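Collaborator request, handled under Task 6.
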Amino acid sequence: MPFIIKINLMKMKAIKNILVPTDFSKTASLALEHAAFMAKLFKADLYLLHVVEIHDSVFDIYNTGIMPNDNSAIRQAVLENLDKAAEKIGKENSINVIADCKTGSITAEIVKSVNDNTIDLVIMGTHGAHGFKEFFVGSNAYKTVNICSCPVITVQTNTKKLGFTNIILPIDDCFESRQKVDFTIAFAKAYAAKIHILGIIDDDSSDSDLEKFKVKLNSVEKSAKKAGVNFVTKTVKSNDLGLDTLRYARKVKADLISVLTDHESQYKVNFLGVFANKIINHSNVPILSIQSVELGVYDPVSLAGSNG
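Structure tokens returned to the collaborator:
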């Protein structure tokens, strides 16, 4: 089920509102640290959200001492804890933090919060995949990445460093792959990060295909130069885009990989493509997932506010 690409060539977007869904896990706490750092950098408001699912109330998982099935009381108790956390984070980072607790479907409430609060970026934790089981598939993070209208950054527990210095920008020979470039470049400029443009083309591509592909990569390089972003370019032939991207990320010690969720290479499946799915599931570094349905032109200066 492909999305319709909407590209507004006039609108320049800035990151002013950041949402962090939390379930009080280690990965959620780490995502919150990243978000607070980012909110301070962008001079953005930070929204902290916890959703009490209906089945959550069967047991007192919040240690509130409240009787099971009392959703309103649990929500109030959790909100008090969120307010304390928000006050602490706000003071430590000199940012405005708004806490909220909802009852219902986690993914639905995240999407509603994104729409109601004009969220520009969501940051959340995920446990990724382990062994043969694609644990991430079907999770709340997976669903959010798929349907959220704004970019989403997912982090795992081993993502200790705050900020980004080396960003992988994979580009393949499909048209849609180019659509994530402007946002990624603007994001890199805000962090003064280096972009590693990774051109990936099929193993069986001809010399003429490669020449055409180089033209596409040149346009990406021109955009990076225009924005004043430091970058390097590498081209590889591959029959496994996800695996080779992860290998390259390890080689250059990347701390962020940018992917387009609904289109990425000729290998298409419903929702996340094979490429994006593998990257998000198995990467040890944060993933910036960009949905083409909301992709526009992002100005590097306005993205970072007065810090750009």
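The cover message to the collaborator said: "The radius of gyration is 20 Å. The CA atoms of residues 83 and 99 lie 6 Å apart. Please let us know whether this matches your experimental observations."
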